[in-house]
Amino acid sequence: MKLISTLTIAALLALAPAASFAKDKKMNGPEVVEIADVSVGLSGLVCDFCSLALNKTFKKRDEVRGTYVDLDTKTMSVALVKDAVLSNEQIIKLVKKAGYSTTKITRKDGSEFIPPEKS
Amino acid sequence: MHKLATFLALGCLAPLSAEARPVSYSDAWTVMLRNDSYLNSAHVHYTFDTRHSVGLRLRYDRENDFLFTGVQLNRLMKRWNKPDSQANIYGRFGLGQVTDDLDSAELRLKRGKDEAVFFGVSGDWETRRYFISAAAEHWEHGRFGEYSSFHSRVGIAPYVANTGALHTWLMVEGHHRPESRDKAAVTALVRFFKGPSLLEVGIDDQGEPLLNYIHRF
Predict the structure, then answer these.
(1) Distance, in angstroms, between B175 CA and closest chain A CA?
(2) Which end of chain B is less enclosed by CB atoms within 10 A, N or C?
(3) Chain A touched by B65 (CB under 8 Å)
(4) Domain ranges in chain B?
């Protein structure tokens, strides 16, 4: 029984990555920086797991076409689908949901928003 | 045979580290495997909100030949996000059953099976260059006795890698296990980290290997 349980778990683990990647058809490379509508400054960003958390959290939104997290600049570039909008409050909430903090939001039109300290 | 099958399954198919960050992002699955001279441990968990995850925990005690199977709940108690660093404190609690895993019926100590409970706390501080962590766990195994472990780890990245590149860390881990035959040990290890996967390979001061793996989905 123990062997069957262990092998079942192993099989699920083997299949899970394929299922996970199959769903993700959105852009996630550095090319997103060129077409980004929003640049989000972040704190707490120290590793690739952080990038993964932010990418996955944002890409669940229909408004998001692609994301790219740059550990060197501590920013996340977000490309939106045509005519879609993500408000500053929504961005701050998504960053928090991923486990991080927003330091600054910069839009393509040059406007900037610096959230309060606890964001 | 039973023991061998369990060891192979835990060690080869599902390798993970139980003391790394046990809470991911919402709706994420994580596989964490730890294998060293004392134990083979697997923890598969689902993060259901920013602060909590729950999952299956298997822990094979290699010194005393028994297997824990149970449920583990993890809580991110506090996180500090700073411009160049992150620090966390985690708590964990588990409940399950311990079963004897000796091969030969003649050698069995007639321990059978018993309920088990454990709790633990861990903390870490990390920049892109330096890493420090500490963890403590206590297990009550009923007839199988109790077990405590204290770990701490320091690490340095010889180079700072950007997103998607291979990240490499050189680390030293100290262990103190009061109920074990070898109460203290030191392990030197190398951590390789790329995208959703983290692999650790090391060797302790007795020459015993360490192999840990984490994958986030």
Answers:
(1) 25
(2) N
(3) no
(4) 2-216
